[in-house]
Prior knowledge:
This protein is an alpha/beta fold. It folds into 2 domains: 3-14 and 84-207, Rossmann fold, CATH 3.40.50.1000; 16-81. Helix 1 (16-29) packs across helix 4 (64-81) and helix 3 (47-56) packs across helix 4. It is built from 10 helices and 6 strands, in the order βαααααβαβαβαβαβα. Strands 3-2-1-4-5-6 form a 6-stranded parallel beta sheet, sandwiched between helices.
Amino acid sequence: MEAVIFDLDGVLIDSEQVWDEVRQSFAAAHGGVWTATATRDMQGMSTPEWGAYLVSAVGVQLSASEASAGVIAEMEKAYAAHLPVIPGAVDAVREVASRFPVAIASSAPAVLIKVFLDVTGLPVPVAVSSEECASGKPSPDVYLLAASRLGVSASSCYAVEDSTNGLRAALAAGMTVLAVPNPHFPPAPEVLDQVRVLSSIAELPAALT
């Protein structure tokens, strides 16, 4: 194995609930009606995809680009007040980065990935947002792009994920996948059956060979 590629939301920062709260509040303020499936549907979507979803499925009375820009602005405010880094995540990434090239492959917009890296100071040379790809997770695009920028084959990478769509994306990319299941939005059991499951991100360094 030649590299380790991390998801961000739910793996390194406990942000899935923040995203959910911000999107729900924003939708309610702009004429939308939250649906029972909206939260899970949007997990893994790229910024253009979930912006369009807020308009088409939730009924937000804005353009897709206006919806996504508004939500991202609220997320920046939330992170400025408190960046919810998962306990043990920074130490785990530092230890892994001392042994492997590392990257982030995230559905988060680039501006929020940068906030995380600026605050933590982690040595992550490659950070890819699915904004740069044709499709978000569960498409493998963002993982394939991250591997390409690291200069390694996807099949020689570990991927670290927490959600159903993220796990599917990494599996579709042909990577060796380790799951740290999100306790708020547990991955589908049939997907977890295909990967190695860790109880916390702190277990990751010891799990890599």
